[in-house]
Amino acid sequence: MDYYENPDLEWYKKISAKNKVLPRCPYASVYKCPIYFRSRALLRRTNADELDKNEEEKIIKYWKNSELDLSLLEEEPTIYYGDKRQIESVTNFCPEATFYIYGYFVSFISDSGDETDRAIRYNNLKKQNIKQDSWAWNWSGLRSKHYTDCRMYSVLSNEKKIEGSKNNNITSKQLSEYKKYEYKCYDQIHIPGTSSFYRSNEIIINRNKINIGDSLFLLLLRLAVELKKGEDGWVNIYDLHNERIINNPDKHQIYSNLRTVLKGSLIDKNGKKFIENDGSRHYRISTHPDFITYNKEKLLNHKDSQIKKLAEELP
What we know:
This protein is an alpha+beta fold and 315 residues long. Helices cover 42% and strands 14% of the residues. The chain folds into two domains: 9-151, no CATH class; 167-313, no CATH class. The chain has helices spanning 9-19, 34-44, 53-64, 67-72, 95-102, 115-127, 151-164, 172-181, 214-227, 237-242, 253-263, 271-274, 296-299, 305-313, and strands spanning 78-81, 87-91, 106-110, 141-144, 189-191, 200-205, 208-213, 235-236, 275-277, 282-285, 292-294. α2 runs antiparallel to α3 (53-64), α2 runs parallel beside α5 and α9 (214-227) runs parallel beside α14.
């Protein structure tokens, strides 16, 4: 996206179409998403939103009884005011709520600076031949956002899948950890530590048996070891390189190869969701640690010394 492109409805729908999702966020409702509600409630206090005050009080009580409100609003929607109590910026807002008021899908929008700052900005825009309909003529800065990039959307959509799943009995503790660590899948993997032929390893994904080579199996096992530690499961690519799990930290083909091998057995057939990348050089298996099981005794007898060493780290 060009910096000066307007994150308007047309822009939003293009991203939705590219991602093969609904044009608008299905959770953009005050009773479905606490981020959307908080954003709308704050805007109401500026007289920019028509949310009824009495209704707002009812919704506040509703969310006080929800785990979502208490455990996930680490980045609170906030309005910052200038010296004359004029809004300078809004941040951490739901893009669906900002579109409702400003006409742009953004999580942050600002009009900071005085008349001198604006004059300088306008002059720079003229020099760059920025179109008059660009947001930049009215705002000093913004951060566009699509709902699929929203942390809460990830949690809400995953929670829906989990609650509707017939394959897993999700405990309240597991559900809480899904929310906390934002695991995107609920596939089950069993690593029996057996092989059907030389340099091939059997794994069972959602009751489907497949075989993968030692190099891909080594990476999968390393990610499994990290996940079984009981936290978010992220592993830095440079750690993988230093541990000789991968040969080159700047090449990503091995992750693509692993995703390709696994995706046919995954519930959503989406290897990128299962072998997840955070965009900051970290990878993980994005399912709950409880859904990964193994035969440690057989893995300890594996012919590959690195695999045997990793097996020793399994709980």
